[in-house]
Design a protein that fits this description.
2 domains, mainly alpha
Length: about 180
Amino acid sequence: MQRLLVLVGRALCSKEPLLLVGETGSGKTSTCQVYADAVNKHLLSLNCHRNMETADLIGGLRPIRNKAALEAETFNKVSSLLLQCGVTDVPNNAASLLSTIDQLESSQLVDSIKAQEVRQKLRRTTGMFEWHHGPLVEAMKAGDVLLVDEISLADNSVLERLNSVLEQIVRGFCPFVL
């Protein structure tokens, strides 16, 4: 494993892409964990399988969970903001709340940053789905290490999507470590 760590370190210092191949228990995953610890990055792991889709890699739309709780929390926050601005007749639906927030912002009775936060929360309550980033996007955003395990099991469409991202990384356009 020490030899593997040295070779991985040299390749990464030279900004070379890596594909670790070997028997089960040969230390591939442990090497990735040691590397992530050494560079003080979080290690995200994605296990590939035959039924894996591109959305498992980059993310996708998912149903909003606990929508009733989200609506109640949002309504309470919006109501308290409106009361702070002197609005006593608080509307009870999202469209009317958005309209009231727009009027308060145009008359400069509410801070535009707070108004934008409230708009975002209100819009979230009106939808059925929301976007969730996949492990590839999360790792790229945070600059973390992504371990794509058992990549040979992934479908060709997933590999093509991953390849298009890796080409940009190798060319130096994307600050991401794999």
